[in-house]
Amino acid sequence: MNIRWFMSRVVSRLVLFLISIIFLVPFFWVFTTSIKDMSQVMAYPPIWWPNPPKWHNYIEAVNYIPFGQYTLNTLLICAGSIIGVLVSCPLVAYSISRIRWGGRNFLFLLILSTILIPFPVTMVPLFVVFAKLGWINTFIPLILPAFFGNAFFIFLLRQFFLTIPEELPDAARIDGASEFGIYSKIMLPLIKPILMVIALFQFLNAWNDFMGPLIYLQSEAKYTLSLGLQMYRSTNYVEWTLLMAAATIVVIPTIIAFYFTQNTIVESVTLTGLKG
């Protein structure tokens, strides 16, 4: 029995290792391309590791575009949208999960149904609205929608709220606490793990967003990193080595953020499925 258990664990880990290798190959290829000479990029057979590696490509990639300005613009959008979802989503989720009022379940289903609406359907109406408000070529269209909630985040928070015993808010109500007092002083401290997950997911969404900045930003001084990467491409020529170097730099913050929060993500998403 012990041998069986040991072999099953070895086989499962071996399979996971092989799958991880498959997923890591594209990242490895991007990294090695970023330190190649242009003559080695299209070589056949492929050169897996350049000799010698050109680490100077990273310096050229940062200087090729206003990398610092684009990073600052991206971080501003990320910070604003994270604040938006952290303000709006917990309030909606708390109302739907903890306050008894007619139609809350119908509203929850209506909110969930918005996940099925693809962005291209709302793209033109939103652009028209923001254009009439004079907000085109500003960061407002990329930040403001976060203050109106996110259906997926509201779902996660609602499920997390349902795992909190009813006795806690009931005891606070008996002591005379208001609903907002219960929400701010009791509930919010208890949902910090899921708030971290939501903040991370929103950071990844805003950091990697390409379509939003492409639609609303017109001035190069306000470009984000996702738009800046397109500047490595010209009509007849692509700076593949610099493009891959910049892409590697851009993806590093997301990897670091996920690495340090992976345990919180697994724990929080698991807890959201305990009660429905």
How does this model look, in words?
The chain is mostly helical and 276 residues long. It has 2 domains: 1-54; 64-271, MetI-like fold. Helix content is 71%, strand content 0%. It is built from 14 helices and no strands. It has helices at 2-34, 38-41, 56-64, 67-98, 104-113, 119-132, 140-143, 151-162, 167-174, 179-190, 192-208, 211-216, 225-228, 240-271. Helix 1 (2-34) packs antiparallel against helix 14 and helix 4 (67-98) crosses helix 8. The protein is globular, with a radius of gyration of 24 Å. The model has no long low-confidence stretch (mean pLDDT 86).
Attribute tags:
71% helix, mainly alpha, globular, 276 residues
CATH superfamily of the largest domain: MetI-like
Total number of helices? 14
* Molecular shape: globular
End-to-end Cα distance: 37 Å
Overall number of structural domains: 2
Give the second-level CATH assignment, the architecture of the largest domain.
Orthogonal Bundle
CATH topology of the largest domain: MetI-like fold
- How many strands? 0
Query: Which CATH class of the largest domain applies here?
Result: Mainly Alpha
Percent strand equals under 5%
Give the class from helix and strand content and strand pairing.
mainly alpha
Largest beta-sheet characterization: none
C-alpha-based Rg, rounded: 24 Å
